Amino acid sequence: MEMAIKRSEGPSTESSNQYFEARDFSELYDEYFDRVNRYLRCRVRNSWDADDLTTTVFLKALEKFEQYSRTSPFASWIFRIAHNTYVDFMRKNREVPVDQEMFVGAEADETWQPERLTLLNEDIRMLRDRLELLTQDQRDVLTLRYFADLKISQVAEVLGKTESSVKMISYRALHQLQRMYERGDNQ
Amino acid sequence: MRDQERFPNDGYDEGTIAQLLSHLQELRRAVPVNYMLKEKLKKQLLQRIQELEQERKRAQTSQKSGKARRLLLVTSGGLLLLLLAVCFGMWGDNTPSVRHYSVMTLATDGTEPLVDLNADGTVVAYVEDKRVVKSREPDHSQSQGTLVLSDGGGEYTAVAWSNRGKQLAVVEQAEEFSRLWIVSLADENRPSSKRLLKEEKGVVLGAPSWSQYDESIAYTRQTSDGTEEIWVSSTVAMQDWKLVEGTQPEWSPDGRLLAFVKQDTVHVMEVRSGAVTKLEAGVWPSWNNDDSLTFTTPDGKMKQAQMSQDPPEIRIVPIRRLGDGALVKAQWSSDRNHLLLTQKQKGETKTIISIASR
């Protein structure tokens, strides 16, 4: 029976018990930049702030990269940094009036159609207003799960909660959100 | 109306939850990614990876050769420190003391922004004859390197080391244009290079200050009507924005606070909230740790303001062996252990540049 953890050339499979992340920082950056940027652009209204936070996340990650164990998924590790950076930003930014800048803008996918862009823009703003009516935990779980595209186990790791607790929060949040959509709630 | 079509009110079954999930997925795809930032940040990260690799190699080399020597140095250094502490009667004192008096003298007035100390206090960068940026170690009387050569007409008016010590921000004034350059210093793998961060007609830029991770630079922008504003330019994202009216901006080490001068009085702004605290009359604020800054008073003394207290506690900080002359500017290095001092004697036009350490 082979017990030693083997270093693989490609990305590791996260389901494996012998998980090992073999890729170097620049490869991981290439893969995770989009998800981190998208997550922060979803959470912060001002896209400039979101981009600054994305820069901070990867600079911090590089400085701390030696502390990353490689035996757990990189997604959990990078999103823990991203989430903490966001929380820190919000704490410092508590008293700043909300910037109404729309975050869907010039850098849209070229396959998009303008009328569809406007529609999605409105949908995103509406979703964000509704997310703000949920609890902090519910907001964190939903954005990490559906905008950062993390698995339940990874969301649990980022937030320091159990998987069953994350599932429960997610279930309640989705139902609450669904009710808001049905009623057309915005306030 | 569209919501009701998308989520019909027929109970909370799995079907409508699935619709909601698919809606969320669609919205996730609609959030755009800043690919321009992705490319620029990658270049910055690759450069930092190279720097870290070199630092690691250097550390390994010095670790091997230095073990025995370190033991000797620690013992003798300890004894020496003990002796010095007894001599000065200053147990636990953090007072800066001048180690290199008159490293250089600069001939003209308004020279304060023309000289800066690198992160660990080992190299001084300065502008000579307004045309060249040079570097010099404090122990050497001659310059060790010419960092930038002017390529056409402009005069260099300010220089500032980045926190990592690999780059310099240099301000150039050429007739009506004011330019802010970022100069990457040469190393064993590549020659020095410079890129234009900001160029503007009809204004005067000055007093650049790098933020915590060198990802942005704050600077003064003086408009044609004399209004002084503090602007910030991102070094990675081609963005700039106005922060506040004032001059001589200085980021705190953690990037949370920005000290600046307005109407000859030192102010501190919390960057995220915009809350401003007014301190005392003074110029050239400089941070000596995350929540403490020093500045120069109108009568040529150095004062320290402790920002963690409300109201901030302000007191005079003595500098040992400072010599004659009023202090004009005291600028901490990024490691906060060294102090670049600019002094001026009464009736003299020359300014004396010295270095103190603590």
Fold and architecture overview:
Chain A: Belongs to the sigma-70 factor family. ECF subfamily. Chain A: Keywords: DNA-binding, Sigma factor, Transcription, Transcription regulation. Chain A: One of its GO terms (biological process) is DNA-templated transcription initiation. The complex is a heterodimer of chains A (187) and B (358). Chain A is mainly alpha-helical and 187 residues long. Chain A has 7 helices and no strands. Chain A has helices spanning 25-43, 47-63, 74-92, 114-131, 136-147, 152-159, 163-183. By secondary structure, chain B is an alpha+beta fold. Chain B folds into 2 domains: 35-93; 98-357, TolB, C-terminal domain (Neuraminidase, 6 Propeller), CATH 2.120.10. Chain B has 3 helices and 24 strands. Chain B has helices at 2-6, 14-30, 35-88; strands at 97-106, 115-117, 124-128, 132-136, 145-149, 155-161, 167-174, 177-184, 193-201, 204-210, 216-222, 228-234, 240-245, 247-251, 257-262, 265-270, 276-281, 283-289, 292-296, 302-306, 313-316, 326-332, 338-344, 351-357. In chain B, the strands form 6 sheets. In chain B, strands 1-24-23-22 form a 4-stranded antiparallel sheet, with no helix packed on it. Chain B is globular.
